[in-house]
Amino acid sequence: MIVLYDASKSLQLIAPNPEAIAFSQPLFAFNNYEELVEELRKLLVLSPDICFAAVVSGRLFTIRKLIAHAALYVDHLTSGDYEDRYCLSNVDLAVRAIEEYKTTGEVRYWQKHHNQRLRVIGDLMFHESDPPIPECSLRCVPWNTVELKKQYPYDSILDKF
Questions:
Q1: Alpha helices per DSSP H over the chain
Q2: Structure pTM?
Q3: What distance in Å separates the CA atoms of residue 53 and residue 29, rounded to the nearest whole number?
Q4: Domain boundaries, the chain
Q5: Are residues 86 and 113 in contact, defined by beta-carbon separation less than 8 angstroms?
Q6: What is the mean pLDDT of each run of 10 residues along the chain (161 residues)?
Q7: Do residues 112 and 84 touch, judged by C-beta distance below 8 A?
Q8: Which strand ranges, in their side-by-side order, compose the sheet holding 70-74?
Q9: Residue 117 region, left (φ>0) first, then alpha (ψ -120 to 50), else beta?
Q10: What one-character DSSP code corresponds to residue 11?
C-alpha cells in the first residue's frame, strides 16, 4: 500500500516514486501516476472531508468520515463517480481493509456495499430489499459486523459539537 494522504498524521499529498505504483485497468483507470496525483489534488479540494487516500494494486482508495460511519471509495473521481463504495465501522477499520486488499483482492469488513445493494448483519450477507432473517441471507462472510463495531467504535463527527 502506498499512502498518498493521511489527515490524521497531518501528511499532505505525498509524492512517492511513480515507478513504485503499478497501474491496473479498473473501470476508472488512471493512465499514469501524474494523472492520479492531479485527480487526487482536485478531489481533496472538492471533498475536504477525505481523511485518507492510498494506492493498492493500481487502485485509488479514499476514505471519508461521515456522520455515523466511514465510507470507503474505490477509484473515487472529482466527477463524483466511483467504482465501489463501502460503509465500515470507522476509519481505522477502513484502513485495515485497504491494507488487506493487496492479499485478499477484495474489500472486507464492510457493513454495506452500496453498488451491489448488499448489507452484512453479524456474519450474514443480505440484499438490501430482503428481510434480515437467516433464511433470507445470501451467504456467510468471514467477518462479524457486530463484533467489529465493538472493536472499532465510531467517533462521530457530531460528538465534537
A1: 33-46, 91-104, 145-151
A2: 0.82
A3: 16
A4: 2-160
A5: yes
A6: 69 51 50 75 83 84 90 84 91 94 92 94 96 96 95 76 54
A7: no
A8: 2-6, 50-56, 59-65, 70-74, 84-88, 112-113, 118-121, 124-127, 139-140
A9: left
A10: B
